[in-house]
Structure formats: C-alpha cells, structure tokens
Amino acid sequence: MNNLLNIIIAVLIIGWLVGYIGFGAMVGNLIHILIVLALIGIVYRLFSGRRSGI
Question: How far apart are CA 19 and CA 3, in angstroms?
Fold first, then answer.
C-alpha cells in the first residue's frame, strides 16, 4: 500500500510541475489542486506510518 501511495504522490507532483510550467496560463490556479492532493498524501503517509510497539 505504501508503494502505491508513493507512486500516486510522485505522479501528482510531476503532473503539477508539467501543468504549471506547460499550461499555467490556461489552467490558472486549478493546477494547484494536484500539489495539495500530493501534500495530503505525504502528510497521511507520515502519520499512518508504522508505529513502533515497544
């Protein structure tokens, strides 16, 4: 599951970069939704990581 989440985060960030650089004028601020989704995925991964049960 973590591997799939990493792939999704990477695709969202790459999509944001391509959209922002290539289509920034046409799409406007809507392209930033991709980076917000990627950041939510990163934060989710940080908080739902393995808990060390000592």
Answer: 24
Are the beta carbons of 35 and 16 closer than 8 angstroms?
yes
d(C-alpha 54, C-alpha 43), whole Å: 24
User: What DSSP designation does 51 have?
Assistant: -
**Domain ranges in the chain?**
2-42
Full-model pTM: 0.56
- Residue 34 exposed, middle or buried by CB count within 10 Å (0-12, 13-18, 19+): buried
Backbone angles phi, psi at 51, to 5 degrees: -95, 135
Q: What per-residue confidence (pLDDT) applies to 24? A: 64
- Position of tokens 């920034």? 24
Amino acid residing at 47:
F
